[in-house]
Amino acid sequence: MPRQRNTAAPAAPEQAASPSRTARLGAEVLGTFILVLGGAGTAIFAANFPESQANTLGVGLLGVSLAFGLTVLVAIYAVGYISGGHFNPAVTIGLAVARRFGWNDVPLYVGAQVAGGVFASTVIFAIAAGGPDGFLDAARDGGFASNGYGDHSPGGFNLAAAAISEVTLTAVFLFIILGITDRRASAGFAGLTVGLTLALIHLVSIPITNTSVNPARSIATAIYGESWALEQLWLFIVAPIAGAALAAVVHRAVFEGNQGK
Q1: How far apart are the C-alpha atoms of 202 and 208, rounded to whole Å?
Q2: Is pLDDT above 60 for 155?
């Protein structure tokens, strides 16, 4: 304890400059690129390595689930402090509905996320084109890690099951994000929590839809899949956004509506 109290006004701490819009959009491009490259890349190159009939080294469903979780985890810690670490149009829209993010930036963030995802799937396509004979054709015949329902669901689940899965799991995902990023939550664990949640979601829903919960990821892979992937893409845009918006509305009503009362 000092002997004499200093009555002089303390110097104002230097305020860290907020990241520019260019930096934030660049972070969203890079983060979504990492997510799609790591997750979809694992699904295409490593899930059934060397082939589905002799899958001696392939990582399988568990490996692909962990890949998606790990990629979003590392992306959040790498550039999340710049942009908020959305990497997902459903998350961006959900945060806007929850009044945690400004609507003015939503179109720019969504555009950046889609661009990052398409850039990643294009890199994956280029690598696959240099694979052994028939590799690229087989990858495209398999959907190029696209999402689907009915005949194109990995487990044969119909449209209704796919829609319920995507809405529900995206809502859960946003509930976790809203909770872990609340000002009352413990700081520093957001990236780990979000990454583990995404891995868990994939463990549940890869057999159902091949797991979207992210329109940018779905768009990125569908453009290189067969025509059915684009025909069914609407569900993997609409359902995740609906789930995120629903979670935002419920979270505000239940967990934030009585604050201070």
Answers
A1: 10
A2: yes
